[in-house]
Amino acid sequence: MDTRSNPRRQARAVRLGPRSVAALALVSAVGAVGFGWPFLTPPASRLSAHAQDAPWLFAGLLVLLVAVVAATISESGLGPKAVAMLGVLAATGAALRPIGAGTAGIEPMFFLMVLSGRVLGPGFGFVLGSVTMFASALLTGGVGPWLPFQMLAMGWFAMGAGLLPGPDRLRGRAERVLLAAYGFLAAFAYGTVMNLAGWPFMSALASNVAFDPHAAVAANLARFLAYCLATSLGWDLGRAVITVVLTLTLGPAVLRALRRATRRAAFETPVTFEAPRT
Question: Fewer CB atoms inside 10 Å of the end CB: C or N, the chain?
Fold first, then answer.
């Protein structure tokens, strides 16, 4: 269906093809293991025995993430207009992140990732989330073994917004409520999976909520829930609330601006160059 025959149909800056989907599925599967290995390995396993070395092992996810981005860009034929859009949004998100650093989870970049993923689609959303987190880490000096996990989690976060129902039909208040509800739940999910990235590397001797490689899965699950309640619940709640507030208040203007820019960019129209007239 041509976009011109259906003006409400949203163009996609990045179309996920078979290779991109396969690469994304592979990275997501490895990432799920990287986040959840404390609950997937028995206490006597070798991985549990090397719990302090695991962040460096799973830091190899960064290579896979870059491969996913490269595969997505190469297969979709990401043009200069989409690259420009990606650069602007990633720079904006990276600039927004330090605003709330250390302030009760006030992180406005999350609402921008939700709206951008919604308008520009899941493929663009995943690329944008990963690139934004990488750029913000360079900006804030937050480069470390946790960065691949942050990139993957933010890619999932923005991609999920692009997978929400009704991208071509749902508009107005109903859409904003849907995006606000997604942002609220996804903000907690992001905080939870990022807790998983750091929680296993606390010393069990330092706290009774730390990961214990010799304990049963049920015991470690109880420890993890206690850890989340004690350390990150307030931060995650602040992130979720600010995402909802910004989505409901600034969402209409930002959605209109993103959709107007997408229509004018005409991502799905091939770029042609005319020979100079003589």
Answer: C
The three-point CA angle 234-236-242 to 5° equals 100
Helix axes 147-162, 109-120, angle to 10 degrees: 50
Cα 46 from Cα 80, distance rounded (Å):
47
Helix then strand count (H, E) for the chain reads: 12, 0
DSSP state letters, 4-30: TT-TTSPP-SS---HHHHHHHHHHHHH
The type of residue at 266 is A
Tokens 């396993």: give the residue. Answer: 45
Contact 1, 59 (CB under 8 A): no
pLDDT tens-digit series, residues 87-121: 899 999 988 887 765 566 678 899 999 999 999 98
As a whole number of angstroms, the distance between CA 171 and CA 58 comes to: 40
Q: How far is CA 120 from the centre of its chain?
A: 14
Query: What's the distance, CA 119 to chain centroid?
Result: 15
- Of 108, 66, 90, the C-alpha closest to 247 is 108
Q: What is the pLDDT of residues 220-260, one digit of tens each?
A: 899 999 999 988 888 899 899 999 999 999 999 999 999 98
Q: How far is CA 102 from CA 6, 106, 239, in A?
A: 45, 8, 12
| Residue 207 to residues 44, 197, 202, 211, 217, Cα–Cα distance (Å) | 21, 17, 8, 9, 17
pTM for the model? 0.82
